[in-house]
Amino acid sequence: xxxxxxxxxxxxxxxxxxxxxxxxxxxxxxxxxxxxxxxxxxxxxxxxxxxxxxxxxxxxxxxxxxxxxxxxxxxxxxxxxxxxxxxxxxxxxxxxxxxxxxxxxxxxxxxxxxxxxxxxxxxxxxxxxxxxxxxxxxxxxxxxxxxxxxxxxxxxxxxxxxxxxxxxxxxxxxxxxxxxxxxxxxxxxxxxxxxxxxxxxxxxxxxxxxxxxxxxxxxxxxxxxxxxxxxxxxxxxxxxxxxxxxxxxxxxxxxxxxxxxxxxxxxxxxxxxxxxxxxxxxxxxxxxxxxxxxxxxxxxxxxxxxxxxxxxxxxxxxxxxxxxxxxxxxxxxxxxxxxxxxxxxxxxxxxxxxxxx
Length: 357
What we know:
The structure is a single chain. The protein is α/β, with parallel strands linked by helices. The protein has 2 domains: 4-180 and 337-354, Vaccinia Virus protein VP39 (Rossmann fold, 3-Layer(aba) Sandwich), CATH 3.40.50; 188-335, DNA Methylase, subunit A, domain 2 (DNA Methylase, Chain A, domain 2, Alpha-Beta Complex). It is 29% helix and 13% strand. The protein has helices at 15-23, 35-44, 61-64, 100-110, 130-141, 188-192, 217-223, 239-245, 291-294, 307-313, 326-335, 339-354, and strands spanning 4-9, 26-31, 49-51, 70-75, 114-119, 145-152, 163-170, 207-208, 228-229. Helix 1 packs parallel to helix 12 (339-354).
């Protein structure tokens, strides 16, 4: 079978790339302008040419020479402008909403066999769907057959209820079918219960696992044969915040906190449901987002999640080490595509194309 090569645009810390590599794609080039995400990517995937630059400044001819096989061009254009939680930026004036044009520029010059675009579900609704419609129109003009679907990561082995919108297109006339859902959902406990014991504000990066026996199959998969893991940093919360945590049961949120402890909020009723949400141990997690905005609480302990716990809930293997200060690490994890979800999407491409051989 001919080898598929890949290029990752807007790669971030590498969730899509890791999924592609695990599926069997030889990823050759990744591009991202965030220096901390690029550092994480290069540290973990050193065999890939990482270009830390604004994509608008990239000379595509300098990318082309890395490719000599069939190409899958993939990536997730910045999605904040399409997110339903950022209504102020869901319009024509947000320059990030036009970065899909750079994706189209690469397609025009490189003419890949396959294209995979990942984003938030809001891309279909922003400005009445004009951005989404433009992407489909551009792909059709370039001769691509287009398929799209909203996938929930928890249906594909990721312990997190995270909706991601995928556009998969090819120019070789193949009918793409999105991966089948799995029946068993992975819970928060299965994902993180063996991780190191840490407290509020932990600053010790490398720690041994808290248990080595009766570990879930999911934990075994992400641990492999390691005896310890890194990125165990935890944001230090004030005593006021910790006191609030104590009032929140599993599945609860800010509404469980007494009013007298929330007086610094001008209108506590405007808080969204993700604030001060304590995770349910026996269910997949809520969406892993920016910690300072979401403030997800550990299911059993009165603290926020460690970076490694969040990475487990995103399906990153424990060998994957995030770079930068704790804030940058948290943001990289939050912005990433769950690798296990990405792997499923890419496997369907390889299986389908392989049947032509």
